[in-house]
Amino acid sequence: MGTYRYSAEFRADAVALVRSSDRPVAQVARDLGVNHETLRQWVKAAERAEDPVVVAESAKDAEIARLRRQVRELETEREILRKAAKYFARETGW
Which InterPro entries does the annotation name (predicted)? Predict the structure, then answer.
């Protein structure tokens, strides 16, 4: 819910404030009027987004998902062509 209530700019500024200050996340959240767990999740998400391993993993996952969609589409096309070939072979008497 917190990701829709606050703008991306506000979230980024809040995360930067947490990182640049020596204050605990709960205190920064209280000062900003944000739930401390929401702010903690924003910080975790920012850390994951900056981690090159996570970025590579998400790129890999996206590529795998794209390839799986493509395989399903090609299998569907192949099945349609197989049925069409069978139909036309029956029509022509092959």
Answer: Homeodomain-like_sf (IPR009057), RD_transcriptional_regulator (IPR051839), Transposase_8 (IPR002514)
